[in-house]
Amino acid sequence: MRARTIVVILATAVGLGLLTGRFVLPARSAPTAASGAAPSSPRSGSPAPKPASGPVTSRHLLPAAEFEEVGFTRRIRVRDRVGDGHYANAACAGEKTLEQTLGEEDAHFRELVTTRKTDAGDPTPGVDIEDDVAHEVAAEARTPALARNYTQRLLLEEMPCQEAVPTHWVYGPTHTIDVTAGITASWLGAYDGDLNTTGTAPRGKEPCGGIAILRNGSHYGVLEVDACLDTAAMTHIVRAAVTRL
After folding, report:
1. C-alpha angle with apex 78: 208 to 109, nearest 5 degrees?
2. Residues 43-46: contacts with CB within 8 Å, 24+ apart?
3. Phi and psi at residue 151, in whole multiples of 5°?
4. How far is residue 20's CA from residue 202's CA, in Å, rounded to a whole number?
5. Which one of 2, 79, 163, 215 is separated from 49 by 20 to 30 angstroms, measured CA to CA?
6. Would you state the pLDDT for residue 4?
7. d(CA 229, CA 206)
8. What is the pLDDT of residues 146-175, one digit of tens each?
């Protein structure tokens, strides 16, 4: 999911459920395996979280401990930085930066990795995808309405990855998590090429990680999970990430 070929498809007037385009996608190697937890839910009697406002800080980003909750046992190292950079690594999504897509360049980046070795061009990700657990990019929009617009645009950019030439990895259908009004996330599971025999994700099969678009009040973000999490684990991780955001 780190191909550097830029293929830009952006539809701004299309509904969130629309699938667009067919692309030859790069082969995706299997990342570290983990599976297992049931979807998280608010504790009984706990007050509903309030939508966020104000600047994004590192405390709004997903902590490594959440992966322990879904059975990931390897030690995770956290690397943070602030600036601009890529938020989606698949060629079908264009692999642009936030500044290129949204005009925003002051975002928080968090890489969760299992290695000390870093990429020469970016100090946060690991050298090999097998060492990457997750990659999160988060920032603040001027208003909640603008954050909603941003997340709609970011999600639409991932839609082309839901169709691919057979034998290439592909994203599955869109899942929506509504925590409360103003706090919502959409995620797409990833499926390796050996499961793609028809050009779309197979029915009845579990994903192996995936990507999520997050919105919490005026905060928005993208969470890419490279660890091989199934549906229950992805639901837990995405809910935790958007609630914290």
Report:
1. 80
2. none
3. -70, -35
4. 18
5. 79
6. 33
7. 9
8. 999 999 999 999 999 999 999 999 999 999
Q: With contact defined as beta carbons under 8 Å apart, do 105 and 148 qualify?
A: no
Residues in the chain predicted with pLDDT less than 70, given as ranges, are 1-45, 89-90, 117-129
15 Cβ neighbours under 8 A, 6+ residues apart: none
CA distances from 49 to 42, 91, 167, 241 (A): 9, 35, 42, 13
Complete DSSP assignment for 134-191:
EEEEEEE-SSHHHHHHHHHHHHHHHGGGGSB-TTS-EEEEEEEEEEETTEEEEEEEEE
What tokens were used for 68? Answer: 């322990």
139 phi, psi to nearest 5 deg: -155, 175
Token output for 202: 């197979």
Reported pTM: 0.78
Q: Which two tokens stand for residue 187?
A: 């995620």
Residue whose C-alpha is closest to residue 39's, from 226, 229, 168, 221: 229
From the number of C-beta atoms within 10 Å of its C-beta (0-12, 13-18, 19+), residue 13 rates as exposed
